[in-house]
Amino acid sequence: MKRSSVFPALALAFAIGTAVTPARAEEPYRFQDIRLAEIPSLEAESAVVWETKHYDTFGDPSPLPDVERSRPAADWSGLPRPRLTNEKGHAAVVRLRNLYHPDSHQSNQWLRYLQSDDASPIAMACGPDMGGPRGVDTYLLEASRLEGPRYTVVETWLDGKTCKGLALRQYQTTVKPLAGGLAYAYRTRCATCSPAQSETLHVVIPTAMSSSATGGFRYWTYLMEHLELPLGPGTSGSLRAGIEAGSIRAWNRVVPRPLPIADVELRIETSFALGEDEPTIVLAIRAANILPL
Question: What is the 3-state secondary structure (H, E, C) of the chain?
């Protein structure tokens, strides 16, 4: 009986409180049209289609597809290890792929850190205790580079003990800062892909509390993440990311000019209707209240 009288009272108090306290209006989005020619572009092959194996497989599961086994041999054993820093630096991510589930984000091992030089992060995947061959890919964002920001992607089949293997995919590209350096973007073109997949917009951002993109993730870590949107004819895409103030604070160690410390919501929309000459890219950003995990 007592419980039934308390709950209506609480509900009434809440209703009165919300009635007399006006809700704070959401900040409107600030929009920016992005010209396609402003986004650096390069040729790139389609992604490696890793083969998933079962846990009852004996011996080397070998998730590397046969079509990739003729890739050029490479030797990274002479590379210097990156110089790590707790100050401003370049953002690096290293993924060591799980042999049984190489495309499973949660099954893979991740390194993410800041480095003070432009040494290849792949050296961080090499050493006497790093194990036998498996897929390794690395990403280095040099946002504060004096000559301009650039991004380096290296994907390999690598023996961690010898630091030798196969070069599967690799490229280095300039990137365009968006929203004052909150995001960095570039495009890849694929000559052998279907028209819808012939061009992709890549966006690198700080860790988001929540994020999604039509083309999915290349990776997500507690430093930065890489998302993809379609730019091919007849496609449309949407990216949405809620980035917490703490992520902005960490990102300010990567970007050349500090960003305001605040929770922000970032959105990017792409579309390429049939009959149009090129895709349309629109960016929107606003302050937002993001509840921490």
Answer: CHHHHHHHHHHHHHHHHHHHCCCCCCCCCEEEEECHHHCCEEECCCCCCCCCCCCCCCCCCCCCCHHHCCCCEEECCCCCCCCECCCCCEEEEEEECCCCCCCCCCCCEEEEEEECCCCCHHHHHCCCCCCCEEEEEEEEEECCCCCCCEEEEEEEEEECCCCEEEEEEEEEEECEEEHHHCEEEEEEECCCCCHHHCEEEEEEEECCCEEEECCCEEEECCCEEEEEEECCCCEEEEEEEEECHHHHHHHCCCCCCCCCCCCEEEEEEEEECCCCCCCEEEEEEEECCCCCC
